[in-house]
Design brief:
Layout lengths: L6 H10 L3 E5 L3 H13 L4 E5 L1 H7 L1 H14 L5 E8 L2 H9 L4 E4 L6 H17 L3 E6 L4 E3 L2 E3 L9 H11 L3 E4 L18 H10 L5 E3 L7 H9 L12 H9 L2 E6 L1 H17 L6 H24 L6
Parallel strand pairs: 1-2, 1-10, 2-3, 3-4, 4-5, 5-8, 8-9, 9-10
Antiparallel strand pairs: 6-7
Helix pairs in contact: 2-4, 2-12, 3-4, 5-6, 6-7, 7-8, 9-11, 11-12
The structure holds glyceraldehyde-3-phosphate, 1,3-dihydroxyacetonephosphate and zinc ion (ZN).
The site of 1,3-dihydroxyacetonephosphate has 13 residues, from strand 3 and strand 10.
Length: 310
């Protein structure tokens, strides 16, 4: 099957009332854990790479690790996606180096500037058979070096979303309806603005919507982290049933990074505490990889609904 774009994947997900998991990848164990889960559940998957991941692992290593993952799992349809592309040059570099999808994140700009930069990326990408995700509205939380406080977060305006999609020709759109990046998403009760999502769905029927900041921050991992020497009190994510509901609506791509971090850290901490004699990285990284696989498998089957859709 190899690398594909999101076009067919999103069309089928939209019509079938499920979503594709977009998982952030930073190293070999993460890629292996995700791919084993996708393969065992016969699920399509999006592997996404942030600027931070490129800086950490080196773009060449990441691309070759993904190539290896595809070779080892030939039945899994895989999209290689740039997460939160900050500028045209980063998008161009990924397009020129085998990515099948890029995100240009112009949400920090004015509407007009966002349209202009997105249009430029769309033009370059489409000429080369690559699809483009754009963003309108502002999520709270931390992504790369940008920190948006809850007060500065801005819900997406449905009418602006329509104008933006028409003006740019982007293939999918990330919107702000109350999710945020990181492990501290809600102080009180979790709330998502389904009314905004519904309105966008009405105005743009069939158009794929993306949900960033969609980790559910499983409390078993938070508890494990805190029990084994960590300090992340009050970490809280988007309840899984809320994500399931979004997946039955226009949301075709659900972004998950923090849950991978938590699964790995919780299990490595447990290993270091309970087995202090261990010093072989394969032991604790192996446990971390297994935890990623189990968590991703659960998302595919119970949250995204993407099992057996490969
Ligand atoms: O949107 C943010 C993702 O979680 C990526 O995080 O920039 O630290 O790699 P990162
Ligand atoms: P989380 O921090 O909720 O995992 O979100 C990840 C994300 O949106 C990556 O773009
Ligand atoms: Zn994001």
């Amino acid at each position: 099957m190899g690398l594909v774009t999101t076009s067919k994947m999103f069309k089928e997900a939209y019509e079938g009332g499920y979503a594709i998991g977009a998982f952030n990848v930073n190293n070999m164990e993460i890629i292996q854990g995700i791919m084993e889960a996708a393969s065992e559940n016969n699920a399509p998957v999006i592997l996404q790479v942030s600027a931070g991941a490129r800086k950490y692992a080196n773009p060449v290593y990441l691309k070759k690790l993904v190539d290896a993952a595809i070779e080892c799992n030939p039945n899994v349809p895989v999209v290689l996606h740039l997460d939160h592309g900050a500028d045209f040059e980063t998008c161009k570099d990924c397009i020129d180096n085998g990515f099948t999808s890029v995100m240009i994140d112009g949400s920090k700009y004015s509407f007009e500037e966002n349209v202009a930069i997105t249009k430029k990326v769309v033009e370059y990408a489409h000429e080369r058979g690559v699809v483009v995700e754009a963003e309108i509205g502002k999520l709270a939380g931390v992504e790369d070096d940008v920190n948006v406080s809850n007060a500065d977060a801005m819900y997406t305006d449905p009418n602006e979303a329509v104008e933006f999609v028409k003006a740019t020709g982007c293939d999918s759109l990330a919107i702000a309806i109350g999710t945020s990046h990181g492990a501290y998403k809600f102080k009180g009760e979790a709330k998502l603005r389904y009314d905004i999502l519904e309105k966008i769905q009405q105005l743009l029927p069939g158009f794929p919507i993306v949900l960033h900041g969609a980790s559910s921050v499983p409390q078993e991992f938070v508890k494990m982290c805190n029990e084994y020497g960590g300090n992340i009190p009050g970490a809280k994510g988007v309840p899984e049933e809320m994500l399931r509901k979004a997946a039955t609506m226009a949301v075709c791509k659900i972004n998950i990074d923090s849950d991978i971090r938590l699964a790995m850290t919780a299990n490595i901490r447990e290993c270091f505490t309970n087995e202090p004699e261990v010093f072989d990285p394969r032991t604790y990284l192996g446990k971390a990889r297994e935890a990623v696989k189990k968590m991703v498998s659960h998302k595919i089957v119970d949250v995204l609904g993407s099992a057996n859709k490969a």
